[in-house]
Amino acid sequence: MRLLPPPGPARVLTLGTLVKTVGRGLWLVASALFLTRSVGLSATQVGIGLTISALVGVLASTPSGYLADRVGPRGVQVGALFAAGTLTIGLVAVRSFPTFLLVGAATALADAVERGARGALIAGAIPADQRVRTRAYLRATTNVGISVGAVLGGFAIAADTRTGYVALILAAAVASLAAAVVFVRLPSIAPVAAPAHGPRLVALRDRPFLAFTLVDGLMSMHFSLLTIALPLWIAGHTRAPIWMISALTLVNTVLVVLLQVRAAGAAATLPGAARAARRAGVAIALACVLFAASGALPPAGAMGLLGLGSVAHVTGELWHSAAGWGISFGLAPADAQGQYQGAYGMGYELGKMLAPVVVTTLALGWGVPGWLVLGGLFLLLGALVPPVVRWAGRTRPLSEPTEQVPALSLDRRTGGSIWQAGSRADGAGTPTGGIGAPRGRATTRP
């Protein structure tokens, strides 16, 4: 596997993402300690603030993507990163719960704008058949960046001083600003004119796409298995040594970095992406069964099942991520990529909000039966994706059916190519122009 994509926009996106996520890792590893030990907030206040910030992200996702479509995604993304960097510096001035809420909500808004613009930028700057692969590179890079940031942040955490925490915050802010400078090298994507008639936020009226977003968002709760449920399960319900928590996290990170790009090939078509989502549900359900069984075994057996469960989980994680990218790009219209990618992100944010309560209540509150319920839930959610995608295909405008075209070379709404008209096997397609007209082309090259 190539460590970097070929020279061009994909490589610029990858390098900018690396810079940005190193800063994110710095903040993630220090945020809770800074807010409680330096600012003086309670754990409950921090939790409430993070929940409100997540809600802001959910509500702003689709409008933010719409803004990127109308104004042009590169400028919106660069502006959002500058805003996020400036707001991160503002954390130094936080001294009370109200100011934490204000800065946190504003930062969540900037992050939502950046996410929506990133989806539209990928759609406009990357050839259609390379978008899912590019997203895979970005996800692998994100894992590397956050890991590097977390390791670097550990030195400041060890000092446990306000000076150290402030230094981390300023470094995270600089990373955001530096990423914005890197992304300036991306091609400028011409904005897409708003439709002359009909609703502006069409993604919120696309019921099949919203159904997929909901199913995919609920399925994304599996990310919290590794970060929330499994560490507490290992520490309190198994005989495995506590260092297994770090070992399994390391295994997950390494496998994502090494295999995510390869796994993206499973989502090269809309049907393939739907099948990948179904397989993801099976793999994650298997992981839940193995995690549940680990609680009844001696140390060696528990470690073995936890290791197998983690491999099953990361396999499902790789398929689930690739499937989500393929379907979200494959169903979105060319003139509304930003808002559709924003709506897709809204599902993930919803899952992130629900996951802590759901996974802790079931896996830790109910024990083995709860793990099995979780496994059944993920199995069901994965199985729902193919029929939802077929439903979405039936609601797209019809044209003469031809041979199946890969999802990544489809017009985002109608099945026609971004560069020329076309159609899918289910008959969805449209001639060039109208609702199938291409989104803005890159007007400059880095």
Automatic annotation (TrEMBL):
Pfam families: MFS_1. Residues 418-446 are annotated as: Disordered. The keyword Cell membrane applies. The chain crosses the membrane at residues 12-35, 47-68, 74-94, 140-159, 165-188, 209-234, 240-259, 280-300, 368-389. It is a multi-pass membrane protein. It is found in: Cell membrane. One of its GO terms (cellular component) is plasma membrane. It comes from the Bacteria. One of its GO terms (molecular function) is transmembrane transporter activity. The keyword Ribonucleoprotein does not apply. Keywords: Cell membrane, Membrane, Transmembrane, Transmembrane helix, Transport. Its main location: membrane. Residues 9-394 form the Major facilitator superfamily (MFS) profile domain. PANTHER family: MULTIDRUG RESISTANCE PROTEIN MDTH, RESISTANCE PROTEIN MDTM, PUTATIVE-RELATED-RELATED. This is MFS family permease. It comes from Micromonospora jinlongensis.
